Amino acid sequence: MREHRRNGAGSGNGRPDAPGRKDKRSTEPGKGAAHAVAKRERSGADRAGATKVHDDADRAEAKWGHDGANRAGVKRMRAGADRAGSKRVRAAAAPRASGREDAVRIADAAADELRPGDRIVVTIKRIGINGEGVGYYKRKAVFVPGALPGEVVKAAVTGVDPNRLTARIAEIEKRSPHRVRPACPVYDRCGGCQLQHMDYAGQLTAKEELVREAFARYAGLEEAELPLRPIIGMDEPWRYRNKAQLQAGHKPGGGLALGLYEPGSRRLVDIAGCAVQHPAVSAAAERIRRLAERAGVPVGAGPDGALRTVVLRVAPESGELQLTLVASAEQFPGRDRLVEAIRRELPQITSISVNVNRGSSPLVFGERTRLLWGRPDLETRLGDLRFKLSPRAFFQLNPEQTVKLYDLAREAAALTGRETVVDAYCGTGTIALWLAPHAREVRGIETIREAVDDAERNARLNGWTNARFYVGRAEELLPRWVKQGFRPDVILVDPPRTGCDSALLRTVADVKPARFVYVSCNPSTLAKDCRVLLDAGYRIEWVQPVDMFPQTSHVECVILLVRKGADG
Ligand SMILES: C[S@@+](CC[C@H](N)C(=O)[O-])C[C@H]1O[C@@H](n2cnc3c(N)ncnc32)[C@H](O)[C@@H]1O
């Protein structure tokens, strides 16, 4: 399949841009960064608010792992206050012509004097990290869920704080050509996607802008200074997710529901029609829901044992599925009847486990997992490599884009077979194993023991004896190795959303490997960490955004930093 790479060669610097962008930039040396700082101060507000919400979510993800956290729980945090109106907003997103709307006073007050309910006119400049439209009212950032870059909206203020305003669309005065009808029947309620109301070309442009914006704000690098490559998207940006974590609950009218919580609520949205989920997962989830209902399985977090979450993962190339029933006790009413029925009716499910979670945090999994039936792992492939995944193993959610991401990591590492490489934050060792055939030695570091066990097993499965995996914190193990005389040629990191620990960055700055490869799912922390390394004598060779999660506001990047003086 042809790779969807955005047009525009090389750095992407020559890309036509919004009017006024170039005027703001100075051609004088040093002014670019100064402007970035001024811009940061001017609009720091939005960040402060949004960043706070995200910091909470980031902390949650850092604590619970990249995919270990309950998606709905973290999303609720991330969504913050302005989310409350998003449902209404999407409903209101079509232009309306009501006399009452027209009669509403349009505020011309200073930003600090605005009150909830006041109407303001906002030109949307970009998307924010939650996918909301961001514009400015008298230089104060305004977050407008559902609004798209380039749109002019009449918006009702919903929240005023010292740093930012939130508002909901009352009327779209100028509509973006990228606005489309969301494909997913549950888009308005689910909250799993944030950008389905924008066509895919618009999403890709908006994500590039997110990266550009993060580097201007947090690394002080203006557009001309940032070697940003055009984002790599998908040809078919739907049905790519290989895994679902579905909460079990009750339907309002009775009966069992499996789905995601609506943002900010405990109402479950049935995601049977989810447009980004692999169809085999959606179909199996619906069958399991019916079978659990028939087996009389209790749901929720009851002390006597009840089903909390259903986790389904598919190996797309074989269609085999792995099922993990997360429950508040290992045995729960109807469990064995349910397993029996699944074995009979869903032969594509080749592994069924129960995981016990009695906790009240948004963490999906508890500590204990027991195989109930079938194989202990799901075998899947990425490129030429085979992976066996235990129920809790982290594995990238979009296999097609993962191959592109890992190929970029390999390109950045530029290995000749003689190098020693560190894959810090290695998860189940997938990147380390991608690099192992091209390196002398690869060492992976990961805090989760099971992930390291998986990594070691997968190294054996693929016959790579030069890849070793270590349980520990990257910021502790790497400095220890360095003290013992270890000098890696390439350090690669793929940290959680919170970014790299400062002790790790200090070690990199001390050891100064010729190449530092950063794989990141959060442009803000990526840019902050890059600033540290730029100050420590590195230059950015290229930044490559990859769209791992079409229809959402997430964007992943691979970035190559080269030590100044080393061969680029
Ligand atoms: C984004 S995932 C990386 C996954 C892996 N590179 C992949 O592509 O599948 C981040 C990983 O870092 C681990 N982690 C979090 N904090 C860590 C730390 N301080 N040191 C080492 N690993 C850590 C998490 O458990 C998680 O597996």
Automatic annotation (TrEMBL):
One of its GO terms (molecular function) is rRNA (uridine-C5-)-methyltransferase activity. PROSITE patterns: SAM_MT_RNA_M5U, TRAM, TRMA_1, TRMA_2. Residues 1-96 are annotated as: Disordered. CDD domains: AdoMet_MTases. The active site is at C521 (nucleophile), C521. S-adenosyl-L-methionine binds at Q396, Y425, E446, D494. One of its GO terms (biological process) is rRNA base methylation. Keywords: Methyltransferase, S-adenosyl-L-methionine, Transferase. Residues 113-171 form the TRAM domain. Residues 18-28, 52-69 have a biased composition (Basic and acidic residues). Pfam families: TRAM, tRNA_U5-meth_tr. The keyword Methyltransferase applies. It comes from the Bacteria. Belongs to the class I-like SAM-binding methyltransferase superfamily. RNA M5U methyltransferase family. This is 23S rRNA (Uracil-5-)-methyltransferase RumA. It comes from Thermobacillus composti (strain DSM 18247 / JCM 13945 / KWC4).
